[in-house]
Every structure is written in C-alpha cells, then in structure tokens.
Amino acid sequence: MENIKEDFKNLDLTVGDVFSKDARLKARNVNVFYGSNKAIDNVTIDIGNKEVISLIGPSGCGKSTFLRCFNRMNDTIDSCRIEGKITLDNENIYNEKIDVVPLRARIGMVFQKPNPFPKSIYDNVAYGPRIHGLSENKEHLDNIVEESLKRAGLWEEVNDRLLSPGTGLSGGQQQRLCIARAIAVSPEVILMDEPCSALDPIATAKIEELIHELGNEYSIVIVTHSMQQAARVSKRTAYFHLGKLIEVGKTKEIFTRPRHNQTEAYISGKIG
Amino acid sequence: MNKKRITPLEATNTVKKSIVKRRSKDNRLKLYGRIAIGLAVCFLLFLFYSIFTKGYPGFFQYYVTLDINFDRDRIDPQGDLSDNSLFDGEASKIVNESLFSIIEPKGRKAKKQAKKIVSSGKDVRIAKMVKNNPSLFGTITKVKFALDDDIDSFLRGYIKRETPESERRISDKVIGFVDKLNQDGRITYEFSDYILKGSASGNPEMAGIKGAFIGSMLTLSICLLISFPLGVATAVYLEEIAKKNRITEFIEVNINNLAAVPSVVFGIMGLAIFISIFGMPRSIPLVGGMVLALMTLPTIIISSRAAIRAVPPSVRDAAYGIGASKLQVIFHHVIPLAMPGMLTGTIIGMAQALGETAPLLMIGMVAFIVDIPNSVMDPGTVLPVQIFMWADFAERMFIQKTSAAIIVLLGFLISMNAFAVYLRKKLERRW
Lengths: 272, 431
Known about the structure:
The complex is a heterodimer.
Chain A: H1 2-6, E1 23-34, E2 37-48, E3 52-56, H2 63-69, E4 80-88, E5 91-92, H3 100-106, E6 107-110, H4 121-132, H5 138-151, H6 155-158, H7 171-183, E7 189-193, H8 201-214, E8 219-223, H9 227-233, E9 236-241, E10 244-250, H10 251-256, H11 261-267
Parallel strand pairs in A: 3-8, 3-9, 6-7, 7-8
Antiparallel strand pairs in A: 1-2, 1-4, 4-5, 9-10
Helix pairs in contact in A: 4-5, 4-7, 5-7, 7-8
Chain B: H1 8-55, E1 60-69, H2 72-75, H3 83-88, H4 91-103, H5 108-115, H6 122-132, E2 140-146, H7 149-155, H8 172-183, E3 187-191, H9 210-241, H10 246-258, H11 263-277, H12 285-309, H13 313-321, H14 326-354, H15 358-362, H16 383-392, H17 397-429
Antiparallel strand pairs in B: 1-2, 1-3
Helix pairs in contact in B: 1-17, 9-12, 9-14, 9-16, 11-12, 12-14, 13-14, 14-17, 16-17
C-alpha cells in the first residue's frame, strides 16, 4: 500500500486528494497513446470501494479513453498503447499474466449507446453468466436473470416478454437492459461511459436513480457530460482537461469551491 | 466582381424561372431510368420467351408403339437376366420384326432403311424392361420406342417433304414408312423419358442431362464444401484477428485481384497442380469442384468481409465488455450477424460456379461420358459443359435438347437462389 504511494510522481499536477482510503482500483502515472498522439497524460487516481465517481471534462479530454483503461477495452484498438500501472485489489491488470476475460467479468461496462445484443431480453442478460459458466442449471440461470433485471429496475416492465428481442425495447429500457447484463456476472466495479447521453430526461432520471442504488453494492465509475448528473449521482468527481487530470475532490466541493481555475472555468461554463 | 446584392423578390423570381428547367431535368432523368428498365425487361422477356419456346419441345419427342413378343429364349438365351445374356439376345431383331410386320418393307435396302426408323436404344430398352419386370416374358406387350432423331425432326417439320430427296436426310421410302406408322396411329408425341433420365449420347433422341446434372451437383457440393468454410475463415481472420499491417494489406490486394482473374486461368492452374503434380484423374467432379472453389473463394471472401464489417462495432464492444473471449465474440455475435451477407456472397459465387464452363474444359470435364457419375471420383461433366457440347453438335434435334438443358440449368439456378433467399430470411428472423 505504502510503496504504491512512493512510486507515484508529479503529485503537483493534480489538485485535490487523488487517493482513497479504501481503494479498489488504483491508477498510477497512466499514459495512453493513440499512435504518437498522447491522449492521457500521467494520470493518477484511486477508485474507492462502493464509491460512485464521475469523470467530467470537455469533449476530447480523454475521460472515456481513461475509463476504458480500467477493463482494458483499449486492447481492441490496434494503435492504442498504455503506460503506467492500474491495479485492481493491488494486482496490476496490465501484467502480462492477467487474462482480460476474467478481468472484464470483474469490471463490467455500460456503453454510451445502448447496445443490447440482437437476441431476446433473456439471452441478453443470460449471455454473461453463460459464457463464464456462472450458473449451475437452468433454474439458477433463470434466477440470475430475474435478479439482475430486478436490480436494473426492468423486471416489472419486461417479465411478460422475456423472449422478445432486446432491441425492441425503448432506449431507456435498452440501457437498463445493458446494466442488467453487466450486473448479471456479479462484477465488482461498473464502468459507465456516458450512459444517459442518448436518452430522454425521464429515462435518464430512472438510470440515475438506478446508479444511486447500485452505488451501495458496486464501485461505479461514470463518465458524463452533464455536470448536473455528476452532482446528482456521485460522491467524488474528477475533472479532466486535455488528457490531464486537473482536479479531484468531493463532488460538492468541486462544484461549489473548485480549487483549480480550469475547473472553475469549466463548471461555470467558460470552457466545454 | 459583381457586388450587387440580390433582393429577396429577385431571388424568388429567379428561382421560379429556373424551377421549370430543373423540373424538366428531373423528369428527363426519370424517363431515362424508365426506358433503361423497360429495355432490360424487354430483353429479359425476349430471352425467356425464346428459351422456353425453343426448349419446351425439347422435353418431348416422338415415339412409335410396337407389339413386342417377349420371347424369353430369344431375348435372354442364358435365362439368367445377366447383362451378358441380354446382350447376346435378339431384342433388336424382335423389334425390327414387329416393325416390319406393319410397314412391310420390300428388299434388303428397304429393310436396312426401315431398321433405322426406331432409335438404336431399342435393345437396351427391352433389356431394362425385362430386368425390372421379368413377368413380361411370354407376353405380347405394346412398347413405346423413341424414333430416330431424323424422323423426329421430320415429324416436327424441320425436314420438309418438299425438299428434293437428294438434299434430304431421309429418303422418300422412309417417309412412306413413317406415313404408314402414322396412319396406324402408332406414332405419338410424348414427354421424353430420355431428356431427364438419360445421359450423354451420340444419338440425339437418347441424349439426356441426368449425367451432367448429377455431375453439376457433385462438383458444386465439393466447391461449396471447400470454398465456404475456407472463405468464411479467411474473412474472419482478416477482419477480426489479423493486425492491420503490410502483410495483411498485401493479402487483401491479392484477394481482390484474384476475383478479377479470368476463370480459364484457374482451369489451367487446376490442370497444372491437381492433375499434373498431384496426379489426380481427369474429368472428375472432385477436381472440377476444387478448381471452381479456387475461383469462387475471392468472391466469398470479399462479400464475407463486407458482411463482417457491417456488424455494428457496438455489438463487439458489448460482448468484449462483458468478458467474452475473441472466439466467443466471433462465434456468438459476429458470424451469426454476418451470416446472411456471407450466404448471399456464397450463393453468388456458387451461381457463378454453376454456370462456369471454361475452367472445366481445361481439366477434361468436356469428355464424352455416357456413365452417370456415382461419386466425386467418377468421370463426369456438368450442365454448362453439356450445353456447350450439344450446341456444337450438327444434328437438328440437339437444338431443342440444348434449349431444354438451358431451362434445366436456369431452373437449378433459380431454385438455388430461392433457397438462398429462404435461408437469409430465416436467419434474419432470428436476428
């Protein structure tokens, strides 16, 4: 624990307390390159246990790129290269011995655009448990699906049509289906990449409520464009600008008493 | 530079003036489009009309009914129904005797001419009948025999009575015999039992497409079995697994080039590699299928890659995000979603292969093969090559046979396409 703090450089870059007492995920001096283009510059941050943290910042600041580092989704992009260290429970996830398959089962992800599989609602939720072999039998799988849909707040709406296509649901329902799909494999951390940007205000409110509830069980990292949303759902907020982590702090403080002038400029609407 | 500002009124008027011109341009474009489609439809209709009117009679031919005395001692001298015994028998003679009893030819020459009226397949026909039904022995039964192709052409009116005897393929005497048979009501025009059940033959009245049809089926099966898995695997590898670098780019360019290579080149390659180096037999559907597989591979690869690229990346993200391995992403999501597109490409490739003649000529599938192939290792031919060969023959009757074979080929093709559409619809419904 202590030595991780030691190998950490350039603390002066970020304002506020990047560390967390009860950290699940720790990112240390993370740099991300797309080809020769540096997208993330020396970012260090902790994600606490059962903590909802928002990553905010103007478009192109690298917050989504950074989010995708946590479950190694950037691996699928050929030109992408990552330096630094990210640990999940003190285990470096970029270690060569780490397999991304179990890692992604532990760190679930919800994407910007609702992307249910073109399968039935049931199969969408059951897909994860199936490929990871989590269910003992059909009955158990049914339970997992029901439980996940209930926790995603979708069960009441779809329990009579589990076998109809997931793509036939409304946008907000699809996104909740994606959340149900993510929690069906019992992850420890959920990454959300602007989960509400394609949704209307009512659907957004439902998702936010859901995030709030899920925050009691999981660590949630949410990237959002909406400062109001960050204020509503998260306890901590991190502000990114041009690939750098500018300021981290309690959400209340970030929005009321930003310490960095760039943060202040952003939250007051001067940049963004 | 003219810096005069245009007032809204002027702008409105100018637009109004130009609108007539623009509308007429639109309308002209629409008209050109309609003319083009109309022409295409006309050509197509004409093509189908000409094929069907020419080909339809090809499914029929003239038969003569004769009373045959199934005398076992003469037809089956050894009495065991073996091929040898039936070959030694006098079936032809019996048929001729029955024929002579009706038309009563006088003299050796007349008899010789009269024998030719009935197709030379008469003894085979009798042999087949007694083999299938030995109880025919000892009876006198009416049997239909195909007429010789010249007589058939005469009855169809292609050989005219008015033509001077010296320029006609059949003599006045034979015409007299035919008239007699006609008066007796023994000549009938019926659905041919040779065209669909027969195989290649030098006698047009006995020629059929069964051999070529089965050859086509075998060749296409080999082609599909090789090219579909290979093509899909290649496409999946190039799209989903391989890193984009110089080597994959080089492979890509070459695959695209291969799609444009004339098919006969693949035939030469097949000849050089499969036959010369590997020493495989000539004329067999296995080699034909392999050559056609090489030819269709680029088509399948290109369309499969397009289909894979059309799978939305969000589906891949979703699957990777939940922890699916590459293999699971490919087999659970990419391939099922790309399958309709892949199938379309495959069917297009197969349709191309079905109609291909040139590469098969190179590997000897143009040989005159009477036996119907039982396996991919038996020499055979395919429908387009059969059509090509028949179109080359001089006898008048082959014209109808050629057209009939074209109809069968078209039918084969249409049913293949229909199957593809059905498959696609079925897979798409599963989304």
